[in-house]
Design a protein that fits this description.
The chain has about 325 residues and is of the alpha/beta class. The chain is built from 10 helices and 14 strands.
């Protein structure tokens, strides 16, 4: 069993802690918080022995094997760099970074320090990924696909009142693409590879963040349309259309309700849905597995797709005008 620490709070960290514990591979040892009081409260709630308010001290703790980083996006690169310099394995919430050159830098640092640097993206770690790939393969030549993740943010009403919630603050490197759109980019690149051309636009809010956006990934034989929004809700999900059938699925982050519609035949469910806790448990299991064997081919696959996704998302933002202060 390995020991881990967390950076960040909220439902996503709560879920990961529970999921990691359920694997029997991880033990929560410490939490990081800017406030000692809130840190102690969080540690007590989850059974952690230690609380750190200084990241350098956490990084120096010899008992901690890895750190789950779920801080605001703009802090990911700086925090992951510091922790990996100290020899800690990293599971970082998506996105790893806003710019592809930062991903390259930290992947090289991870290799130099012999640590694992992994993006916490459920799509890459669930068995449903292979089920989706097999269903798409049954559809023959794919001619078009529409991948969507549009979910009205719980903070959108605050924005409409004139406030600037974190999710709509470019200084924190957030917005619709970084939060939800990434879930459409991953399967597009996984299933179809890097596109020959990208065409993108977005609806920018008064803060400069993208509230919604669209990108067309062009290939020699198909176009893949990505749509995403934090200002509105999609109902019909996503679909991949081929000459021998169509695959549909619901919430793209969890690959819910994958269904295959053969050209000649009845619709069929492809796989059973998994809960968020099951999906995050797969992340924790693979993190452990890659630490034990960094030569695992699946780890190389994760690194490749993480860099490709960062590259495509940076180009989408550039074309759409969704700029962050640190962008060149």
């Amino acid at each position: 069993m390995k020991k881990f620490a967390t950076i960040g709070r909220g439902f996503i960290v709560d879920a990961f802690i529970e999921s990691a514990k359920s694997t029997g591979l991880w033990q929560l040892d410490a939490v990081y918080s800017r406030s000692l009081d809130s840190g102690k409260s969080y540690a007590d709630r989850h059974g952690a022995k230690k609380v750190y308010t200084d990241l350098v001290s956490l990084a120096a703790d010899p008992d901690i094997d890895g750190v789950y980083v779920a801080s605001p996006n703009a802090l990911h690169v700086e925090q992951c760099r510091l922790l990996m310099e100290a020899g800690k394995h990293i599971l970082c919430e998506k996105p790893l970074a806003a710019r592809a050159d930062e991903v390259i830098e930290l992947q090289e640092l991870a290799a130099a320090k012999s640590v694992v640097y992994l993006e916490a993206i459920m799509y890459m770690h669930t068995p449903l990924r292979q089920a989706l790939r097999q269903a798409v393969g049954a559809c023959g030549q794919i001619f078009t696909a529409r991948l969507d993740f549009s979910k009205r943010s719980a903070h959108y009403d605050a924005y409409l009142r004139g406030e600037t919630p974190n999710i709509f603050n470019p200084a924190l490197e957030t917005g619709a693409l970084m939060d939800l759109g990434i879930y459409t980019v991953y399967p597009a690149l996984d299933l179809f590879g890097m596109p020959q051309k990208i065409s993108a636009d977005a609806s920018l809010l008064r803060t400069g963040a993208d509230g919604a956006g669209c990108a067309v990934l062009s290939y020699p034989d198909k176009q893949v349309v990505l749509t995403y929004a934090k200002t509105a809700q999609c109902i019909i999900g996503s679909e991949i259309v081929g000459e021998e059938g169509t695959v549909t699925f619901g919430t793209i982050s969890q690959l819910q309700d994958i269904c295959l519609y053969p050209r000649n035949g009845a619709a069929m469910a492809v796989a059973e849905n998994e809960t968020r806790l099951q999906l995050m448990a797969h992340e924790a299991e693979n993190w452990y597995r890659f630490i034990e064997d960094p030569t695992d081919a699946s780890y190389a696959d994760c690194k490749r797709l993480a860099l490709q996704t960062a590259t495509v998302m940076e180009e989408i933002r550039r074309q759409a005008g969704a700029r962050f202060p640190k962008d060149k």
